[in-house]
Amino acid sequence: FKSAVALLGRSPAAWFRGNSADTLATALKVGITMPTFALYKRWLTSAAVRWSGLPEDAPSPRWAIFLAGALAGCTATVLTFPLDVARTRIALECPVDMNVATCLAAIGQEEGLAALYRGLSATVLGILPFSSIKLASYDVLRRRATAGLDDPSASLPLAQSARFGAVAGVVAA
To answer: Can you give the pTM of this predicted structure?
Structure first.
C-alpha cells in the first residue's frame, strides 16, 4: 500500500514505469496461449477419440476444450511470469535507468532464479478458471459462426474474431 501511495506522488512519467515489461508479457501470453490452446485441444480430442470410441470427425468434447484452455493459460503464465515480476519491480523498486533485461538479471543474481517465480502459484490459481472460461467461450462462439461453412476450420474475419475475443474475455472476467 505504501508503494502505491508513493507511486501516486511521483511525476506522471513514473506512472508508466514497467509498461514495457507488461506490454512484452501481454504480447507473449497471447502468442503462447492461442497456439498451445489449439495444440492441447487437438491432443485432448485425440485422446477422447481413443478412450471413448468417438468418431474421428467428432467435435472436441466440452471438457477437452475447457481443459485445453486451462492448460494453455497455465503454460503462458508460467513462461511469462518473470516479466510480471520485472514489471512490478521496475514500477516500484528498480532504479530509473533499469530496463527489463537488466532488472531480470539483477533479480536472478541478487535473489536467485526462484525469486522470478515467487507468487506464481497464486497467479496460476487465478488464471486456470479465467483462461478455461475465456477460451471455451471463444471456441463456442467460433464454432457457431463457422457451423454452416464447408470448412469449419476456416479463418474468421479479424473484426469478428476480435468481437468474439472481447465477449469471451468479458464472460471470463
So the answer is: 0.81
